Amino acid sequence: MNFIDLLSKKDQRMLVLLNELTIHGSQTIDELLAKLEVSKKTLLTTIDEINLFSMKKYNQAAFSVQKDVLFSIGNLNACLFDLYKETAKQSIPAQILTQLFTQQVSSTSILAEKCFSSTVTIHQNIKQLNVFLKRYDLQILSSPIRITGEEHQIRFMYKAFFWAIYYGNEWPFILVPKEKLIKEIEDAAPYLASHHTNMIQETILYDIAVILSRRATKNFITRQITHNPNSPLNKILYNSGKLVELGSPKEQVTLENSFTLAILEGPSIVNRDYSLIHEMFFHYQNNPTTAYHMLLTLMEYLHVFLTDEDYRKMDMTAIKMQFMQVFSMVTYFQGIKEDFIPFRDKQERNNLFLTQIVQKISTKLIDTYPKLAVAEEVIRRQLNRILADNLDFTKYLPAITILIDFDMNPLHNRLIHQIKKLDYHCLFLSYLDAPNNCDLLISSSIPSELAFRKKFTLFHRNLTYNDYQLLDQLLSELTREKLAENQIEF
């Protein structure tokens, strides 16, 4: 469940429509009516509402309609991003979470008044919110109304919420002045300031502001943030803590027994800052954590599968910190959650060799560190992403020899071009250099003198979408068979 599912049907419809045009550039009215399952009148009204928003924001419409075809005008990514933030921020679920964070309410009736809604609507939205918050192991309770769960989960959820909904629009932390916080961080940890702009990265401001706000409302008092009190992150938060009045010594007690903070150590824009990456990695080398030991184990496993050249590419501080962030996140939060950011579930083509080694590595990691089992799927997905982002794994796939019949010469170049886009390791043969056999024959006939594993037959001159899908399936089957024949073991 994504936060977009908690928005009104009207807001969801606007966002889905805008997302469709962002991806495809144009759509027919009939196609959109089938996808949105609304009347043509409602669709046209939705188009007008999006154009009105775009006119106010960018001084131009987002769409134009010509002969029952809807066309995008320019790049819609920014418009989609801003529309989501605007509709999400104004939604009742977002208002409920914001009010609960600042602890300005004590009952549903007061909450309803602040949200300009009825108590019935508030109860309905809380019920939906609790379904969404279940993934964070959190729940909203009443009498008094409050959000309950582990403190580190609450902080993590609110960082994701405020970053996704408010960043770029306004500073949501009314208890922590932004300018003063910037000054404190620059004094306590100057390596967090950008060398180009001399400003703190925005994401770390949100990280710290969440914690200080929780302290200010007496929800989180302890000064110890991470497992290691000498962590550079702990030092930042300790020095920033003077922005919030903690009260008398009696009030300085641990209301929540939570000593972990993976927000700052998790995936974040600030973690791409060169100085911070090396500062943190040097710290972990000298003060090894469980996540650091997991990293060392992972690098041993990668050395088995990768060439020396590729291993050297992965043996870089910036990339190793990405792996460590994954381990920190799954250790602290049993997974990486991005429920507040919609439209990110895009299918990516998986390299079969990469899928195989990620499967083997994750299994070995879980055997060594059993507590990782609760986030096995997340570990595989994140390892796959980091490896695919930094290395080309096509060359690791077993070679598939393909012979394209010369009788189909008009399709020859087009077939090669489309097959290459499927990202398998293919070698294209001709009759002049073909051996006695090949893995795949693409032909309209079957030469009796040639042996082949599989055959793809075409009886027409144009490749259809179905042909393309079938070719992908055949290449996948051949690759899997060859991988099975050449299993790589530890």
Automatic annotation (TrEMBL):
UniProt KW keywords: Transcription, Transcription regulation
Domain Mga helix-turn-helix, residue spans: 82-162
Keyword Transcription among record annotations: yes
Transcription regulation is among the record's keywords: yes
InterPro entries named in the record: BglG_antiterminators, Mga_HTH, WH-like_DNA-bd_sf
One of the Pfam families matching this protein, by short name: Mga
Protein name per its UniProtKB record: Mga helix-turn-helix domain-containing protein
Taxonomic source organism: Listeria kieliensis
